[in-house]
Amino acid sequence: MTSEGAGNTLKGEAACFHHTVRVYIEDTDAGGIVYYVNYLRFMERARSEWLRAKGFTQQALLEKGIQLVVHSVTNRYLRPAHLDDLLTVTATAGALRGARLTFTQKALRGEQILSEAEVVIACVDATTMRPRRWPGELLAALEV
Question: What is the pTM of this model?
Answer without folding.
Answer: 0.86
